[in-house]
Amino acid sequence: MQVRVHFYxxxxxxxxxxxxxxxxxxxxxxxxxxxxxxxxxxxxxxxRKSALVAVGVDYQAGEYLLAEGxxxxxxxxxxxG
Amino acid sequence: MQVRVHFYxxxxxxxxxxxxxxxxxxxxxxxxxxxxxxxxxxxxxxxRKSALVAVGVDYQAGEYLLAEGxxxxxxxxxxxG
Amino acid sequence: xxxxxxxxxxxxxEQALSRSRAASAGxxxxxxxxxxxxxxxxxxxxxxxxxxxxxxxxxxxFELLFDQAQTRWPLESVRLVHRVGFVAAGEASLWIEVVAPxxxxxxxxxxxxxxxxxxxxxxxxxxxxxx
Amino acid sequence: xxxxxxxxxxxxxEQALSRSRAASAGxxxxxxxxxxxxxxxxxxxxxxxxxxxxxxxxxxxFELLFDQAQTRWPLESVRLVHRVGFVAAGEASLWIEVVAPxxxxxxxxxxxxxxxxxxxxxxxxxxxxxx
Lengths: 81, 81, 131, 131
Hints:
The complex is a heterotetramer, with two copies of chain A and two copies of chain C. By secondary structure, chain A is an alpha+beta fold. Chain A is 26% helix and 27% strand. Chain A contains three helices and five strands. Chain A is globular, with a radius of gyration of 12 Å. By secondary structure, chain C is of the alpha+beta class. Classes of the chains: A alpha+beta, C alpha+beta. The interface between C and D is medium-sized, with 32 and 32 residues. Strand 2 (29-36) of chain C pairs antiparallel with strand 2 (29-36) of chain D.
């Protein structure tokens, strides 16, 4: 199945894109998707320890089960204020 | 020697005056003056535990040595804000 | 609890905002936090910061923080404005107002919101070095 | 540290005050506390409070608090207005602004000043019950 992955802040520059589409196996977990993304974008992989990950508008951990149509977002630590 | 004693807030009502003059012995301590004042104004005496005492613009304790011209102030707990 | 949330490119009009404060008869305290863009970033002079938000998620995360604040303290209202886009040094990037019966809860809730915001609300900044 | 202190019978003009805020390039935070007269005192509706100050001592004690705040935190400015005389319910009786490099010290100093004020600054209030 397909999921869209959005990048924010300097993660956009590291990926060279603001969003991409990834093909994943049905019932895949978020962590599998992230491994796929990090393989494709080594500069992002270097940031994986501090990366924040959301599905829709909620933060999610690696065990989250992805569903068709999920919008995943990957971004660096937030800096509002 | 003479010192003036000022009352604020409801201490004015309890004393029936906003200021008085007391005669005290030269070199008297603040606590002697207060005893004198409390004897003269029993309604104030009932408030002595919570009363705040200043000489000029500084808070002072009972052992403070009074000098000619000192302005003493006696008032209830403050309530600004 | 009354809530107002704006994520906006407009300058923050603190005067208009404070003029529109509503406080019912039991309210004794209003606490404000204004975040101002400093003229330096990591020791170097800057002209300002450009803020980027993942707006849909930012709104949702702000609302979650307001929910938590409302659960923890008896608040009458929380209003918050965060600017996005370029904000010049010296200008306000963030404005928060908390109205409550007493000062302790107003201060606590205001500090909670700004602290948690910096942990969970997806907004980022980019410094513009002075040419 | 810039200081401004007013003890005044005039209504507090929060808009004019905030408009006159000065913050140099290193300042990132302004915290405001506004104390509002509640519509009740000990459970009974009131029309307002009359504040009385021993003004000379109040000014001196406020300055002592500003000295202490300045020693404890790196503050750029503290401005404070306290009303005296009759203040109607719903109106501001106290306005404090603290400007500092970071929010932590601005919040801490503002809370310190209002808390200590309620301990040492000779100002008293008297409730006017609603007729």
